[in-house]
Each structure stands twice: as structure tokens, then as C-alpha cells.
Amino acid sequence: MSAIDLLVTSGNGPVECRIALSALLGILERETVRLGCSFGTSLGPMPDQHGAKSAIVSIDGPEAEQIAVGYCGTIRFTFKSPARPGHKRQNWYVAVQRIDSRSEGGEVTIDPADLRFQTLRAGGPGGQHQNTTDSAVRVLHRPTGLVVTARDERSQHRNKALALRRLEAMLRQIEVEKQEAAQSGRFVANRTIERGNEVKTFKL
């Protein structure tokens, strides 16, 4: 069974939304491991000391579907800004959406010359199902510096296709952010990050 992929994004929100996103990745990883699933993440381009604006999370295991259902939607974090002391706002939002092979969004074109592939051993959780061959695939997209890894399948060919799918999803999100930022000064995720309709809330 292939992993479930989730796109986690702070849109074009302020630095505090990246802090919230980083916190959410930690929360997701702990819950995923606690439920006996494997967890992997690929960060969006150019994360800073506060984290990335977006990430792709891959969850594999018997409880993966339950986790995905529980987190898809808007996540609200409540905390005082460590980056801007005295800032009055305390609510920050992150959106989580599922990625599949028919992901919506603008088309992206990837030049094969921009890619560098590397094979590696499929390690990590898995017990008796852990693959001991060099079937995992890591792909580097040179123009953006994005690095995506796929180790879910036993076939190197399938892992390569899965890594490319995740890379396309990340590049599509970057393109959406660029288009939205060009069209208005609002946050890119205004239409997907629905305030007041959160599926989960956390207080840091």
C-alpha cells in the first residue's frame, strides 16, 4: 500500500504561520509514530529559521487513513508571537489537504535535465516488511533546491514515479502561491484556509 500524502501549507501567511507549520509537523510525526505508522516529510523551498511555508507529509501504515481524515482542513494554533513581541494577534492558521494523482491546480512542467536522482536503501520503520534493497529514490530539483524522497514501494521504478508525483505537487503549490501573490495582497490560502472552521486547534 502506498503512503497517503498530505500537503501542509501556511500560504503566504506571516512568519508565525511557518512557526505553526513546524509545530504541526512535530505533532503529526509524534501521533503517526505512536499509532505504528511511518512518517516522512519533504519541506518546501528555502525554509528559514522559523521553518518552511509548505511541506509534503507522507504517512504509511494501518492508521494512515484515520490520521489523514483527522487533520485535513484548517488547523488553528494559538500562541504569542516569538518573532514579534507585543504583536496583538495570537491565532495562526495552517491548511492540510490530501494529494492524489489527480491533484487540482495549475499544470507544472518539469525538465528532466533539472532533476538528479539518487537511489538509497529503504530504511526506517517497517519490521518484517522493511525493504533491504536500494529501492528508495531521492530526487533533487535543481532550480528550486527541493529534495523529495519516496521509499514506500518495493519497486525502485514505482518509488521514482511516487517521488516525481510529490515533487509535482510541491511545484504546483509554489506556482499557486506565485499566482495568488501576484493577483492580490491577500494570503494565498484565503480560499483554502478557512478561519473559524477549524478541524483541530492547538495552544503552544
Folded structure, characterized:
The chain has 204 residues and is α+β, with helices and mostly antiparallel strands. It has three helices and nine strands. The chain has helices at residues 15-34, 64-71, 156-183; strands at 4-9, 38-43, 54-60, 73-78, 91-99, 115-120, 136-141, 146-150, 198-203. The protein has a six-stranded mixed β-sheet, with helices on both faces. The longest helix is centred in the last third of the chain and has 28 residues, at 156-183. Residues 125-131 and 185-192 have low confidence and may be disordered.
- Structural class determined from secondary elements: alpha+beta
Uncertain spans: 125-131, 185-192
- Total E-strand runs: 9
**What is the alpha-carbon Rg in Å?**
17 Å
Please report the distance between the alpha carbons of the first and last residues: 35 Å
> What form results from the Cα inertia axes?
globular
**Largest beta-sheet characterization:** 6 strands, mixed
The level of helicity is 25-40%
Oligomer classification:
single chain
Question: Helical region count?
Answer: 3
Q: Average pLDDT, to the nearest integer?
A: 80
Give the spatial strand order of the biggest sheet.
Answer: 2-3-1-5-4-9
SSE order, one letter for each helix or strand: EHEEHEEEEEHE
Roughly what fraction of the amino acids lie in strands?
A: 25-35%
